[in-house]
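Bug report

Summary: structure tokens for VOC family protein differ between web form and batch submission.
Environment: batch mode, default settings.
Steps: 1) Submit the sequence below via batch. 2) Compare with the web form result.

Sequence submitted:
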Amino acid sequence: MSGKLISRTGSDGDTSHHAVLGSPCWVSLAARDLSAAEAFYRAVLGWTFRAATLGERFRVALAHGRAVAGIGAVAPALQVPVAWTPYFAVADADETVGRVQERGGTVGVGPIGFPTGRAALVSDRAGAVFGIWAGRLIRDFGAWRRSAPLWLRLVTRDAFDAAIFYGEVLEWTSPGRCDVRYEDGAVVLVCAGEPVASLCGGGPESAPDPELRPRWQVRFIVPDAAACARAAEEYGGTITGEDTDAGGECVTLRDPEGAELAVFAPREA
């Protein structure tokens, strides 16, 4: 594995718990009703849940026994919208927040201290929200990254401007971290030799419909996108878009509280 690593292990020396600085390290849903969110995602994605170390308002979602995401009933308390948010690994949350502000981004929440680290919710210059995390990762982070059942996609007005912003804030341009490539009209983030996110232009800077505003979209890889969509509607969600031209079937959904996500079933080779 190439790239500068941060260790979140303790003393056992298991390198499967490492993350490349600047890379995605987690995704989390800010919800209002924890029980309702669990019921929806259990039905749509087949997840089970366990308690999280961050407190009783948080759960860790498991797929086939592996941690894949977090859910926290924190939207009212933190005054943030119900939404899925990607988190990026950083060495120092306070320094990273400073870089966000210096480059025209805004700070929504934090940095806040948790028993396992420090986190903040921030926005880029176009208004897309993302999180930063400096601290201990889940113990099976390596498994999460290797089998990452997700893809991150930034929809924004100017992918190149976004790449400059994120590259400077998350220090993608520093030697030995992540690589940034241009492929098929999008900027692709590659960490440890593995594509993990894309930055796509064309999102309006300001739109009356929140669905059209610049945002990070979390896409979960599933075996059957249509089945997930049917389950979503049955459990109070809505279908907002479908695309069959991106190497498989992708369906964009909103859960009952309005959080956007996408499910993607790759086309068999």
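Above is the batch result. After comparison, the two runs are identical; trailing whitespace caused the diff. The chain has one domain: 5-266. DSSP finds six helices and 18 strands in the chain.
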